Amino acid sequence: MNNGAAGLDVSGAQGDSRFVEAVNVADGVITIDVQNSGNPALDLSNVILTPFQMDGVTPVVAGYSGIIVWQCSVSAPNLARFFPPNCR
User: What total number of domains does the chain contain?
Assistant: First the structure.
């Protein structure tokens, strides 16, 4: 799945939010660009949501119709403290 299939602007330009600059979807992985946090290093980071099958290990592939487990990560590990515990 990509931006168009997810119903998002294909350029990734959407992000009319105080803290979200853009949202992009590529191969089912959702990347959220941070902005306006007051921390320049944080504003250069992303939150990444990766889909896995119910076992939490096997990547989701086209045609998969079971339960999806999302793994959350941060693009810069030293900034993890700014995100929820399940994203660290």
Answer: 1
Angle at 35 between CA 86 and CA 78, to 5 degrees: 45
Predicted TM-score (pTM) of the model is: 0.76
Q: Any idea which residue has 């590529």 for tokens?
A: 26
Q: How far is CA 13 from CA 4, 45, 48, 63, 86, in A?
A: 12, 16, 17, 28, 27
Radius of gyration of the chain (CA): 14
Element (H, E) at 41: helix 40-43
Per-residue model confidence (pLDDT) at position 79: 79
Tell me whether residue 52 is in a domain.
Answer: yes
